[in-house]
UniProtKB/TrEMBL annotation:
Binding positions (substrate): 163, 192, 249
Enzyme superclass (EC): transferase
Site (Important for acyl-CoA specificity): 111
Record's function text: Transfers an acetyl group from acetyl-CoA to L-homoserine, forming acetyl-L-homoserine.
GO CC annotations, alphabetized: cytoplasm
Entry keywords, A to Z: Acyltransferase, Amino-acid biosynthesis, Cytoplasm, Methionine biosynthesis, Transferase
Gene: metAA
GO biological process terms held by the UniProt record: L-methionine biosynthetic process from homoserine via O-succinyl-L-homoserine and cystathionine
Pfam families the record matches: HTS
Protein location: Cytoplasm
UniProt-listed HAMAP family: MetA_acyltransf
Catalysed reactions, as listed in the record: L-homoserine + acetyl-CoA = O-acetyl-L-homoserine + CoA
Protein name, as recorded: Homoserine O-acetyltransferase
Originating organism: Rummeliibacillus stabekisii
Length: 302
């Protein structure tokens, strides 16, 4: 089934080249189908890359999905044009009277700041609170996961001595959980962050469960007991080259950055990195859409 996206979105041509079935709003409006309505709060600086990564995954299931992109009104994005935001994005104020079947909150390059120091934290709190009543299920990624754990459950992040940067091995903790159905007992996933969250604090919280963790990278996937809040601290959505792009960017800036762990063949940045996590990425997103969005959302919101 197709993914419905705004007409003329730049990612459309690339998705079509990858044989992802897409249609624009004008065609989807002619079909008598109740699509899943998914909002994406895109906090990443290179928004168009993140759009492509997430749309590729949302468009690879049997379910028809309509996507609404959101951006913060209280922060000015420097890496995307105003015209792109004006054309393809909405602010929270424009959608807060609506209900969505699912919400994705991405990571953001603000993790070294205390939550209260982030210039859009007040707006973020309003969105997180709104999601409790207006969204069936929310998938939080990286900083978005840390923000959710802090706001909803009072679990703060802490700064790492060294950036968690690379592709790390993870183990499944709850093999019967629908979200990770089909996962190998051991799998790999990318991380790129300067902060972390205590696995013990999440395990001890009465309203949370740990579905996956890593000896090297710590907490990976946590879920609320009512299964409406899902927190993923890494970046399964990343392309094969994303960590490499971040590494070369930081080198160009003169930052003290180590080579991503377990990433380049022979640990040589001149070698082409391989995507060794793709199958689990598609499993995570298809399981989320099927079991937590499609199976749980009402046909008509009351």
């Amino acid at each position: 089934m197709p993914i419905n996206i705004p007409k003329d979105l730049p990612a459309t041509d690339l998705l079509k080249k990858e044989k992802i079935f897409v249609m624009d709003e004008s065609r989807s409006n002619q079909q008598d189908i109740r699509p899943l309505n998914i909002a994406i709060l895109n906090l990443m600086p290179e928004k168009e890359k993140t759009e492509m990564q997430l749309l590729r995954l949302l468009g690879n299931t049997p379910l028809q999905v309509t996507v609404t992109f959101l951006h913060t009104a209280t922060h000015i994005s420097k890496n995307v044009s105003k015209s792109h935001l004006d054309t393809f994005y909405k602010t929270f104020n424009e959608v807060k009277e609506f209900r969505f079947d699912g919400l994705i909150i991405t990571g953001a390059p603000v993790e070294t700041l205390a939550f209260e120091e982030v210039d859009y934290w007040e707006e973020m709190k309003e969105i997180l609170e709104w999601s409790k009543t207006n969204v069936t299920t929310t998938l939080h990624i990286c900083w978005g996961a840390q923000a959710a754990l802090y706001y909803h459950y009072g679990i703060d992040k802490y700064t790492l001595d060294q950036k968690c940067f690379g592709v790390f091995q993870h183990t499944v903790q709850e093999s019967t959980a629908k979200l990770i159905r089909g996962f190998n007992d051991v799998f790999v996933a990318p991380h790129s962050r300067h902060t972390s969250v205590s696995v013990h604090a999440v395990e001890e919280h009465p309203n949370l469960s740990v579905l996956s963790k890593s000896e090297q990278a710590g907490l990976f996937i946590a879920i609320s007991n009512d299964e409406r809040m899902i927190m993923v601290t890494g970046h399964l959505e990343y392309d094969a080259e994303t960590l490499s792009d971040e590494f070369k960017r930081d080198l160009a800036r003169g930052n003290d950055i180590a080579i991503p762990s377990n990433y380049y063949p022979d640990d040589n940045p001149n070698n082409q990195p391989l995507n060794t996590w793709r199958s689990h990425t598609h499993l995570l997103f298809s399981n989320w859409l099927n079991y937590y969005v499609y199976q749980e959302t009402p046909y008509e919101w009351a």
